[in-house]
Amino acid sequence: LARARSRGSAPVCVGGDGAMLPRYARWACLLAVVAAASWGGDDLEDESDPPTTFPPGLLGQVHGHKAAVYALAISADGLLASGARDKSVALWNLSSVTGVLRMGRRPSRRLEEHTAGVTALAFLPGALVSGSADNTTRVWDLGAGVLRHVQRHPRTVFGIAVQPQAAGAGRFATACWDGVVRLFDAATGLESGALTGHQGGLYAVAFSPVDASLL
Questions:
Q1: Beta strands of 57-188 (E only): which ranges?
Q2: In this predicted structure, what is the pLDDT of residue 94?
Q3: pLDDT tens-digit readout, 1-47
Q4: Residue 25: CB partners within 8 Å, gap ≥ 6?
């Protein structure tokens, strides 16, 4: 990512239900580079044919946004979510490398309820949480393809973290530009707590993989 960051790319978020699985680690690296390279806001849904050969080390590309990609997440079962300045979340199934290369530029599904750029993503079991510059987080039911809950914030949400299942699944935390970390119940969508103390806006939040700490 050093080369991509030198071009002025935004931070890229890749995560799942509290842990990155080795099976999908290479896709995390690949899509992080693709997202960083798209920071300039190029139209990624042009009508040209996707490339069939790639430089050494690059496994492939998936294109599905009309503006810069701000956020990525990969689920435990190989589902990729990407969020962009075009206000949408695009979903691909990465469970098969061959399948991804054949899918080309079109995502399998698109979520389009946000009214500003999508800045954060994280997977829950059977669901996806997205944060946005429209000052909300939204919880999506991936099985039914519908929106479950909307959580309103004072400012942009730049980070989302899902509590590891071993520590008690069903909660997620948000990092908001107002300097507050908020905790929510994923089943009800209700806020269960808020942590203050920062003197500026927040970009990221994470649950510890070894204990109940929130960072």
A1: 69-74, 79-84, 89-93, 109-111, 118-124, 127-132, 136-141, 146-152, 157-162, 171-176, 181-185
A2: 80
A3: 333 333 333 443 334 444 444 344 444 444 443 443 344 444 444 44
A4: none
Q: What is the pLDDT of residue 4?
A: 35
Tokens describing residue 96: 């098969």
The answer to whether the beta carbons of residues 60 and 100 sit under 8 Å apart is yes
Neighbours of 34 (CB within 10 A): 20
Q: How far, in Å, CA of 148 to CA of 127, rounded?
A: 9
Regions of the chain where pLDDT drops below 50 = 1-47
> Which runs of E-coded beta strand occur in the chain?
69-74, 79-84, 89-93, 109-111, 118-124, 127-132, 136-141, 146-152, 157-162, 171-176, 181-185, 191-195
Q: Which residue has tokens 């309103």?
A: 152
Q: Could you give the CA distance from residue 64 to residue 121 in angstroms, rounded to a whole number?
A: 16
